[in-house]
Design a protein that fits this description.
The protein is α/β, with parallel strands linked by helices and 285 residues long. The chain has one domain: Collagenase (Catalytic Domain), CATH 3.40.390. The chain is built from 13 helices and 6 strands. The chain has a 4-stranded mixed sheet. It has a two-stranded antiparallel sheet with strand order 3-4. It is globular, with a radius of gyration of 21 Å. It starts with a helix and ends in a 9-residue tail after the last helix.
C-alpha cells in the first residue's frame, strides 16, 4: 500500500514538473519571438495604415514603439481568416492596433488568449437554436461582431466605418473586451481580477448598471444612458464591453458621466485612457 502512495506522489510530481517545463518553454518561445520582432524594423506600409487611425496619431513616440512590437507579435501569432473576402495588411494591422491598444498597460503576452480572428466583409447572419422547457427556439441575428473561446468574428464594414467616422463605438474593442471578460470562463461582465478588487468592482458596476436600467424602464431621460446606448443594458457582459468602448474612444466624456466606472476600468486596464492621448487633449470623440 505504501508503495502505491509513493508511486502516486512520484506521478504527481512528474506531472507538476512537466507542467512547469511546458510553461517555461512557452515563456522562452514568447521571449524569442519578442526579441526577434523587436529587432525588426516596423514596416513603413504599416505606419501608413496606422496614420489613418485617430488614436494612433495622438500617442507618444514611446507608446507607439511599444505598440509596434505588440502589433508585430499579434499578426505573427494570430490566425486571420477571411469569410467571403481576402485578408490584407490593412485589415490585420487595424485589428491588431485596437486589440493591442487595450493591452498597452499589460505585460507582454498577458491576457492575450485570442487565437483566431475571422473577418466578414459586412454584417453576418447567425442562427441560434436552444430549448427552454422542452420547447425548441430558433433565432436569426444580424451581427457586427461575435466572440467566444478565443475566436473573434468581426465585420470589416463596421471597422472601416468606426475609423472613417470616429465616435463612441468601436466593434474591435467591444469584441476583444468580451474575450477579456471570458478569461475566467464566465461571460458576466467581470473579468479576471485580483481577489481584493472583486467587491469594489461589483459594487461600482452593479450600481451603474441597475441605475441605468431603472431609468430605461421608466423611460427617463439620461445623458449617461444616451452615452452608452440601450444595448449596453442587455446584460452585464454587454455593459462591460460597451463601457470599454467608451473608455478608449471617448475617455473624457465617459469619465465625466461615470467617474467610478472609469476608475475601475483604469485599474483593470492599468492605464488612464484620458491621459493616453494627453499630447492631444481634445480627444473626446
Amino acid at each position: 500500500m505504501a508503495s502505491y502512495y509513493l508511486l502516486l506522489i512520484q506521478f504527481l510530481f512528474a506531472l507538476i514538473a512537466l507542467f512547469l517545463f511546458w510553461q517555461s518553454v512557452g515563456y522562452f518561445r514568447r521571449m524569442w519571438r519578442y526579441k526577434r520582432l523587436k529587432a525588426m524594423p516596423f514596416p513603413r506600409s504599416y505606419v501608413t495604415i496606422l496614420q489613418n487611425i485617430q488614436q494612433y496619431q495622438k500617442l507618444t513616440p514611446k507608446q507607439k514603439e511599444k505598440l509596434h512590437v505588440m502589433i508585430l507579435l499579434f499578426i505573427d501569432q494570430k490566425e486571420f481568416v477571411g469569410a467571403k473576402m481576402n485578408i490584407n495588411d490593412e485589415i490585420k494591422v487595424t485589428i491588431a492596433f485596437y486589440a493591442c491598444l487595450m493591452r498597452l498597460g499589460f505585460e507582454l503576452g498577458e491576457k492575450d488568449h485570442v487565437s483566431t480572428v475571422i473577418v466578414y466583409p459586412e454584417h453576418f447572419i447567425v442562427d441560434d437554436s436552444h430549448t427552454i422547457d422542452g420547447i425548441h427556439h430558433t433565432r436569426t441575428s444580424v451581427l457586427e461582431g461575435q466572440s467566444a473561446n478565443g475566436t473573434v468574428v468581426i465585420s470589416w464594414q463596421d471597422i472601416a466605418l468606426n475609423i472613417a467616422k470616429p465616435g463612441k463605438e468601436n466593434v474591435i474593442i467591444h469584441e476583444f473586451a468580451h474575450e477579456l471578460d471570458f478569461e475566467d470562463g464566465l461571460a458576466d461582465g467581470t473579468p479576471l481580477l485580483e481577489t481584493s478588487k472583486y467587491q469594489k468592482w461589483s459594487e461600482v458596476f452593479s450600481k451603474a448598471f441597475t441605475t441605468l436600467r431603472n431609468l430605461e424602464e421608466r423611460q427617463k431621460h439620461s445623458e449617461g444612458l444616451i452615452l452608452l446606448g440601450n444595448y449596453a443594458l442587455t446584460n452585464e457582459a454587454e455593459f462591460f464591453a460597451v463601457c470599454s468602448e467608451r473608455f478608449f474612444q471617448i475617455p473624457k466624456a465617459f469619465k465625466n458621466h461615470f467617474p467610478d466606472v472609469y476608475e475601475e476600468l483604469k485599474r483593470f486596464y492599468r492605464l488612464d485612457a484620458e491621459k493616453l492621448y494627453s499630447s492631444h487633449p481634445d480627444h473626446n470623440g
